[in-house]
Protein: Aconitate hydratase
Organism: Faecalibacterium langellae
Amino acid sequence: MTRKIIEAHYVKGSLTPGEEVFLRVDQTLTHDINAVMTYLAFEAIGLPRVRTECSVSYLDHNLLYIDHKTPDDHIYLQSAARKYGVWVSRPGNGICHAVHAARFGVPGKICMGGDSHTPHGGAIGMLCIGVGGMDVATAMTGVPMRLKMPKVVNVRLTGSLRPGVNAKEVILELLRRVSIKGGLGKVYEYTGPGVETLEVPQRATIANMGAEMGATSSIFPADAQVKKFLTAQHRADAYTELLPDPDVVYDEVIELDLSALEPLAACPHQPDNVKPLRLVEKQPVQQVFIGSCTNTSYADVARAALVFRGHHVNENVSCTCGIASRQTYRELMRDGYIDMLLAAGVRMLEIACGPCCAIGQTPATNGIAVRTSNRNFKGRAGNPNAKIYLVSPESAAATAICGTFASAEDVMGPDVAQLAAIHEPEQYLVDDSMLLPPLPSEEAARVELVRGPNIQPLPVPEAPADHLEAPVSLKAGDNVSTDDITPASAEFSSMRSNIPLMSRYCYHRYDPGFAERAKAMGRSIIAGGENYGQGSSREHAAINPMYLGVKCVLAKSIARIHKGNLVNHGIVPMLFADPADYDRIGQEDVLEIEHFRAQIAARRVTVRDKTRGFAFEAVLDLTDSEVQVVLCGGQLRYLKQQLAK
Ligand code: SF4
């Protein structure tokens, strides 16, 4: 399926795994806390209108207007969408991934999104890839997307989920087996008789969290379930079948029996730290959040509500529920499930990402938070001292009732079988009144961009100099996440359109002295351990260090999306040729690289540690075009050159 889509969108390059291929992009999506940079870049490129079939700007993440910053962003984004021929999904309509799959997704198309969980749309047989905002701006210009041709892993599902076991368990089990790095350079393609038993939103939970394995994407067949889903969305005409060929040969095969799964939990502080829920130590839970794009389909929330029936949220637990779309919220309200949640003492939140990205509902100090979302890095909920466990909605409801880790079966006993009767609606409650369609070109041309004081110019990096001498401003450890580099929370999210302000908080929680130190150094290098930049697609994790003068990141390994963001924003991503050299250098050591540009082109760089008097080798795991982008000083300069040709 992956190859069929790639071949149908092929422009140039190689179809050999690991090599660079260029693909036509049909759709893009952006969301409010990352997109201002995307639209500023698009504006800087100077095209009058996007050149995709469909681009959508979602105002969905931060709806807490605690000061002028977020409304400034939303008004700018709406004006930019109106000007450039982009759909707007207004605040309150829903979280980008849930709305996009339901209202815009088309099997067989390619969608690039400025969010790491864009692969959610793989649930309907679409190839959806999460990238940085600059890549989305590039896709909007119609310039083909560069991609490392992925390997394709077949996950062959058999059996069916038992009541009280959710699609969340499927992806947690895969994370347990494969780890947070195991999916690098791979697309996970789900087949087998078990697939037929999974409704589209269940598939979406799995595809969404494929991002946690570091995967390029995940995809399910466009089969009878997808046809049923699109028909229920009154979009039957968007359906085209997409199935794997009977004689398909995959790069790797994983077998997974759905019937054998039991409730699981991802324990702090990594999504692959997975254990059976029954083995998690029974500690008091302070907070439960049933929400996020990952796990709040109609059936998810209805099942959680059924677990609550006849029970109440434990007096020591703060339990909130944030549903991913207005459509789902209204259906659940119509069918009485919201009332069941309210009767149980659950607090209903706005239709937005909210707590998932630390915008509200921060857990208490040392508090245990149990969430149905997809990430549990330190600080992801806004408090680095809290511990986040990821579970299914059924287990979250049971935990909220018991005040400690519990499964639906623990609460319901044999009645847990009743959960099997809940399915997605036969017909969804379709109401697109919160979607603004693109304006006709003439009208769009007259729209003025509205730039409040929070909208500051996009910083543009310099091309690398031929001689670099710079100190190490930070020696970071393994698994530094984009949350460590640019903290999540309402306060910080609303600074993302204002880099001079936001950069002051770069690495704020990880190393509070970093921003000042890097600025004082003028130009510097960050040294990192394994999996540097894991987590979200947040390009601010590259833009802020760039703004503070960071010229290179030299790490043992770098997460895929973050590496792309570094390239796009003019920071040279380099890997220790011998990871042992990481231990030999120290923070504040002065590193020197001669003939830097020529060495970048050769993808092998000799670095001299002037402080300790030794030299070591670094390599650049970059494609030809990425090398060109780095040498240009980032994607914006590169793109302008390309479009001028
Ligand atoms: Fe929003 Fe969380 Fe989903 Fe990201 S993972 S789109 S922050 S709900």
The first strand starts at residue 10 and ends at 13. The mean pLDDT is 96.
